[in-house]
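Hi support team,

I'm filing this because I wasn't sure whether my run with protoporphyrin IX containing FE finished correctly. The job status page said complete, but I'd like someone to confirm that the output block is well-formed before I use it downstream. Pasting the exact inputs I used:
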Amino acid sequence: MYRYDAYDHAILRQRVAQYRDQVRRWKTGELSDDEFRPLRLQNGLYIQRHAPMFRIAVPYGLLSSTQLRKLAEVARDYDRGYGHFTTRHNLQLNWPKVEDTPDILEKLADVEMHAIQTSGNCVRNVTTSHFAGIDPDEIADPRPFAELLREWSTFQPEFAFLPRKFKIAVSGSTRDRAVTLAHDIGLNIKKNAAGEIGFEVLVGGGLGRTPILAKVIEEFLPWQHLLTFVEAILRVYNSYGRRDNPYKARIKILVHALGAEQFRKEVLEEWANLKDGPSTVGTEELERIARHFTAPDYAALPARDERVDALKASNPAFARWVARNVHPHKQPGYAAVTISLKDPRQPPGDCTSEQMEAVADLADQFSFGELRVSHEQNLVLPDVPVSALPDVWEAAKAKGLSTPTVGLLTDLICCPGGDYCSLANAKSIPIAAAIQERFADLDYLFDIGDLDLNISGCMNACGHHHVGHIGILGVDKNGEEWYQVTLGGHTDGVKGRETALGKVIGPSFSAAEVPEVVETLVRTYVAQRHDDERFLDTFERLGLAPFKEAVYAGRRPAALNTSAARESTHA
Ligand code: HEM
Ligand code: SF4
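And here is everything the job wrote out:
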């Protein structure tokens, strides 16, 4: 993984010292709340419903066991002993004291971590696939490119005050696991006929209040031009993006307003000034960065292991875990393992300090000391020998980290919602818990099969509800919490049908109704599915109608009408 050099370390130390002084001046009243606000935000500190919220970056989701142990220590010493892994490779602490945040950053700097650009209208954490470097489908490892973008964009003065926050995702596989279509810039690595590496460049995607999928503006950009081309895009956005209205400030609105073709023309015009200039990436520079991402020292192992096969045959719980939480690996004899953060006893994505330490131990013992954070809010051990799977399973089980549900309905994505977030219209964690409780039967869950359920507490869509097969969105109706349901969204990741936005099925529901609604949707699917058809495929074959009919059947028309009338205010 990328290791800091002396310059990186020095920059981080200076930054912590600067921030420490800013906090001090705020405490003594030398800085007003308004003056302190942008300074704290530039260091990842929000003020939330109950307490500050501190967002720590995990660049492209890659963590060492040492870093995870440090996160555990920080969560224990300065928070309530847990942290929350988000959909964008960050860890959020929900209860730190403002006064402690310089100390937290100092501890993080010891292990080459920080919170810079985790907030503010700048280029945020660059995200990628949690299987980067190990995916059998991989065209090229996206991490060196993500790191290039990180180095280039961190402290980039020209793009520190964009019209709005800016998110870039890079995918290196034929299957997109980084949801590139829902990012401001999505970069899909491709190989041309000559075997050279380049990027398909997508622009103007995003969820939130106005969900839009990104448009391709370049079919094949040679990798040498990555930074100059991204710079050209950002310049066009910086010049024309709307600063008058924060709700219309994202690049997706600009691309939509101009049209992708016109936007592309503007970018090409700007690029003419930058192409082949100093930001062009040289082979030496790429190789310098790529050396940080070489494969670990794999042993030559047989692809199968008899002990594992025998345990799978004799122990259904282990077989289930292998079926859902163990993933193929480029290297024979190895597998990637998802450490689930979806035990129903904890909010989705939450991880206690003790659990973080347990996962760090597992990484040291079985995965070359390395881990990943997935955008589905789980952790991944990327390089586990197949023969060690039973040991990993036992150890994960002991800590409540072996929930065997990856990709199933209860492996849901869920934002912190009204329990923490001051922007929320409704709570989302109790909704997640109620659904997880309703679908606790593993036999049933396995029978239902692949189903993504995503929950957001407001239209900002942090929980990615637009791209859930079933999406649940908290809406406010006259001060009460209601939930709107969408169907058919997905991030399938397969070329040609990577991502789609869900469709609203109709009037929203009370919190108490939601589990029953989900159950009805699932029952409708089970009754209608063809042999191996997934929920999503059945939905695409049948459309909204049968699901809608089943869910609203028996609801009183009056209630329906009132609800429908109110709905329009939330469009
Ligand atoms: C688990 C916690 C969180 C996660 C995973 C998360 C992640 C995200 C993601 C993925 C989006 C969608 C952006 C897009 O694709 O356009 C988003 C939007 C947004 N989030 Fe969060 N976020 C979290 C917490 C928060 C909190 C606590 C705040 C409040 C300070 C917040 C404020 C926003 C806003 C304002 C937007 C809309 C941005 C826009 O469309 O311009 N988020 N967040
Ligand atoms: S979706 Fe809304 S409620 Fe949920 S974390 Fe984002 S801003 Fe907060």
